[in-house]
């Protein structure tokens, strides 16, 4: 066999044996996993639960999904959906936990995951108008795809009330409007913290490793906001095991302020964890910090 043919053969063979996550580099996309619940009394005596990943192959989009997806895309959010992906029965269930959603999102080729539920509930006739009432409430949480803990990075919530004499028509309107409103809210949040994962922006970032608890992230954020030089802290990007924070987004933060923030975090006595710098970071322009939980004694 000629050398050139052998290398082509080896490359093709390697593409079959590599695991899917290793082939998906720089995805930066979002997977939306929203369960739709129509409670009993809205469309009959039985509750209706729907979720697009209920089948192994083709997605079964709900009207709420379609409105949400359209709004996210209008906000410039890139959605990752791979209908050809065979979804394991383990994940083909509604109301996924954040940890399971993080794993499914990674399998579907995403970098970030929006997981949550939208619920439509009848509140019966409204006295004295005699109109029917409908409450729609939705909440999504943002997690990093592939995260073992599934720590929530952000939450987005929308609630709407509807009144009229035609409940199915109100439900149809609610699906469109709530999905669109939730997509707008989440889309703005995602765009504010958007950015290539693992790549620094125009100024240094603080990359926190081993943030296994949301409380640790909040304590670090609170300590930074307590500094006179810091008035805002946002998540710039998130990947498995890493959350990158940007100080004072929208303005040029001097390097000495970033270095001062790092020293403050390292020297601060947190209740149940410590912050230390990671030497030899491979990410240019990023200060890597390690969250080290204290061992719990008796």
Description:
The protein is α+β, with helices and mostly antiparallel strands and 298 residues long. The protein contains seven helices and ten strands. The strands form two sheets. A five-stranded mixed beta sheet has the order 2-1-3-4-5, sandwiched between helices. A five-stranded mixed beta sheet has the order 7-8-6-10-9, with helices on one face. A hairpin with a 4-residue loop joins strand 3 and strand 4. Helix 3 packs parallel to helix 5. The N and C termini lie far apart (67 Å). The N terminus is likely disordered. Keywords: Signal.
Give the key terms.
298 residues; alpha+beta; Double Stranded RNA Binding Domain; 2 domains; 5-stranded mixed sheet; 7 helices; elongated; disordered N terminus
Question: SSE layout and pairings?
Answer:
Layout lengths: L2 H15 L2 H4 L6 E9 L9 E3 L12 H12 L23 H10 L4 E15 L4 E14 L9 E11 L2 H26 L12 E5 L4 H12 L7 E7 L2 E6 L7 H13 L5 E5 L8 E8 L5
Parallel strand pairs: 1-3, 6-10
Antiparallel strand pairs: 1-2, 3-4, 4-5, 6-8, 7-8, 9-10
Keywords: Signal
Please sum up the structure shown:
The protein has helices at residues 3-17, 20-23, 63-74, 98-107, 167-192, 214-225, 255-267, and strands at 30-38, 48-50, 112-126, 131-144, 154-164, 205-209, 233-239, 242-247, 273-277, 286-293. The protein has 298 residues and is of the alpha+beta class. The chain has two domains: 30-193, Double Stranded RNA Binding Domain; 205-293, no CATH class.
């Amino acid at each position: 066999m000629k050398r050139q043919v052998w290398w082509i053969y080896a490359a093709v063979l390697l593409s079959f044996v590599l695991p899917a996550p290793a082939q998906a580099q720089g995805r930066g996309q979002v997977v939306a996993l929203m369960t739709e619940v129509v409670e009993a009394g809205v469309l009959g005596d039985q509750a209706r639960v729907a979720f697009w990943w209920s089948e192994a192959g083709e997605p079964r989009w709900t009207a709420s999904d379609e409105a949400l997806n359209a709004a996210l895309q209008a906000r410039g959010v890139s959605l990752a959906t791979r209908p050809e992906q065979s979804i394991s029965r383990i994940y083909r269930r509604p109301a996924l936990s954040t940890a399971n959603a993080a794993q499914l999102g990674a399998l579907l080729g995403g970098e970030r995951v929006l997981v949550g539920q939208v619920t439509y509930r009848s509140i019966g006739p409204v006295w004295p108008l005699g109109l029917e009432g409908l409450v729609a409430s939705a909440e999504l949480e943002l997690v990093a795809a592939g995260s073992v803990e599934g720590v929530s990075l952000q939450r987005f919530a929308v609630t709407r009330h509807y009144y009229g004499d035609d409940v199915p028509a109100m439900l149809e309107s609610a699906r469109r409007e709530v999905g669109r409103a939730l997509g707008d809210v989440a889309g703005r949040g995602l765009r504010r913290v958007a950015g290539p994962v693992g790549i620094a922006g125009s100024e240094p970032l603080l990359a926190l490793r081993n943030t296994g608890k949301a409380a640790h992230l909040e304590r670090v954020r609170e300590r930074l906001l307590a500094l006179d030089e810091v008035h805002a802290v946002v998540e710039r990007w998130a990947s498995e095991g890493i959350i990158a924070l940007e100080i004072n987004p929208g303005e040029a933060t001097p390097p000495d302020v970033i270095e001062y923030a790092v020293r403050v975090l390292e020297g601060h006595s947190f209740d149940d964890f410590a912050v230390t710098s990671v030497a030899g970071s491979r990410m240019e322009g990023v200060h890597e910090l390690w969250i080290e939980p204290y061992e719990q004694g008796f």
